[in-house]
Amino acid sequence: MLNNLVIKPGQRVLTRLVISRLPSGTVIDIPVHVFRSTKPGPTVLLLAGMHGDEVNGIETIRRMIRRDLLRPLCGTIIAIPILNIYGFLNFSREVPDGKDVNRSFPGNPRGSLASRVAHRFMREIMPLIDYGIDFHTGGAARANIPQVRCLLHQDEETDALAAAFAAPFTLHAPLRPGSLRETAMQEGRRIIVYETGESLRLDEPGIELAIAGTFRVLHHLGMVAAAAPPAAAGVVCMRSTWLRARYAGLFRSDVHLGDYIEKGQVYGSVADPYGEHSVRLESPVAGYIIGLNHMPVVNQGDALVHVGRTDLSPSRADLAAPYEEKPNTPLEIDDTDEDVV
């Protein structure tokens, strides 16, 4: 049963979860599409719009619904194109009270607005699902190369889902407190995250890769008859490092998403806007560019590039010698991935 509806085998249903009202009195509800086969099988969640400004996942699910692609041979598919309707309406990552829905699970029916959205999801959706794909996008002018994020080598089912999706990059991402992934794992459900592009921009190649990867997961679960194989083998990164701005100024990147950079390689520069100083940026680690800041104006501490690493050596013990120019070493190392969901 979902939203007080009994959905019978073979039915396709659109229902709406009422969350709250705007101050104007307009009802805010979450459309939920349910596609149920006549044969028993797993229930898979396709979720997007956890952050309202991340449109690539929204478009991914919209296309699959519009093209009538979600016809499971067995089991059930639950598709939610937009979870955070508030953020979507306001071009925002958060809900109006400034809180992140993806740090608010399992939620509280009497808590903040984000907590109430999470609680309604937990009450209505979570008990029904076995597996899920949560679609996301880089935020704040930071673009992500198409990638799956999940907890690798700790759970066989999660590893199998990530391998079946076969994204160009797969990143080991520890669970974050209050996230959907963490809460799902505690409930015995397996959810992987797919990231591509940047907020408020459509990434066409990333969207088509998302659809193809979704069908490979459904094929792996026996829910569709066939799925296209990946065009190339993906790269697995067991760790990642954000290189951050140590100085404010105008950032110019010399690398692109997907590039491999060597330790000590110059990946860009930060200059003051008056033409007096410019500092080259050298990477202290080797790896693939899996995230890139497209905002030219940066402040101290801003994330510049995200390096996915296949090495296992500790980054702080493996730093390159600082670039000899005043001021020295215009970067900092941060092994925490602030975009992990």
Secondary-structure map:
Elements: E1 12-21, E2 27-36, E3 43-47, H1 55-66, E4 76-80, H2 85-89, H3 113-124, E5 131-138, E6 142-150, H4 156-165, E7 169-172, H5 180-186, E8 190-198, H6 204-220, E9 235-237, E10 239-245, E11 249-253, E12 260-261, E13 266-271, E14 278-282, E15 287-293, E16 297-298, E17 303-309, E18 331-334
Parallel strand pairs: 3-4, 3-5, 5-8, 6-7, 7-9
Antiparallel strand pairs: 1-2, 2-4, 6-8, 6-15, 10-17, 10-18, 11-13, 11-16, 12-15, 13-14, 15-17
Helix pairs in contact: 1-6, 4-6
- Rounded to an integer, what's the Rg over CA atoms? 21 Å
- Tally of strands: 18
Order of helices and strands: EEEHEHHEEHEHEHEEEEEEEEEE
What's the number of structural domains? 2
Morphology? globular
CATH-level-2 architecture of the largest domain: 3-Layer(aba) Sandwich
Question: Which range does the strand content fall in?
Answer: 25-35%
Low-confidence stretches: 316-332
Q: What oligomeric state best describes the polypeptide chains here?
A: single chain
What is the level 1 CATH name of the largest domain?
Alpha Beta
Q: Helical percent range?
A: 10-25%
**Can you identify the CATH superfamily of the largest domain?**
Zn peptidases
